[in-house]
Amino acid sequence: MADLYNKTSRPLQRFVNKSLLVPPLVNFKEIFGVSPKFNLATCHIEKIMCTFRAGMFCYLNRRSEFLKKGRSISTERWGNMLCEGGKPLRNTFEETIRSLSKQPIIFNVIRHPIDRFLSGFIDKCIRRKMCFNCFHCPKNLECFITKLHETLVAYYTKSKTLTESEYFCVQHFAPANWYCNLEKSYDKMLFMRYNRCNRNELAEDFVAVLSKAPVPHTQTNYIRKEVLNSRRGKHEEAPLKSEIIMISYFSKAHIIVRSLSAVNLKAVNLDSTLGVNEEERPEDKLLL
Fold it and tell me: Which GO molecular-function terms appear in the entry (predicted)?
């Protein structure tokens, strides 16, 4: 497969430079959960099952202790995990590869960017009111996106150093293709699509990936059940609330898209990677 950077960034570079879109494939953050025992790793991206997968890898790496202490993957939470911070973690793709044997299974979960954005906005700016007071834009979506876009531009142009609070906010809202060094790791990854309205399909995708590792059937089946149970997770927003906000701001969707990456499905042939028929998924214009 052609180098991902050549395939996406360069053909779009002139367009991006003349638009308000932030560029794709900025190497913002690399965090991988690993299980050397199963030659398995995953790319962690905030607001895409990050907490669940941290709990899952804790279960895979310390199963006996995990079960003995009555833990469950779907109820693990940051700050109260058996494996503190979701450890073990690797901070670069190269380090991840060195931690595993030949032909490792490395997977990523992707989510529609507007769904991911609204999930983060509800969680960080409405319910928990975190994230630097949401750039001093409490409950004001248009104000928040404008400030977020300015901060993303400032980061990749290196025109300012982000404060700790600004960085915390950006790491929950930066385009998903800014994570895990996709320029190098894309060809080595398996992708599954997150859909909070279709947990059965998501659970089967986890089974397919874990079976390649291979994780024993008993453990795979347990993880499958936990994927189905995770729909009631404490920090996952109520679907109705998310739907109401999405409808309220649908007329401003162009503002949201402006702050997302310029990469689309056709640019990276992501649908062929996932085995998705593009004609059946016309709404997925931006996925990473």
Answer: chondroitin 4-sulfotransferase activity
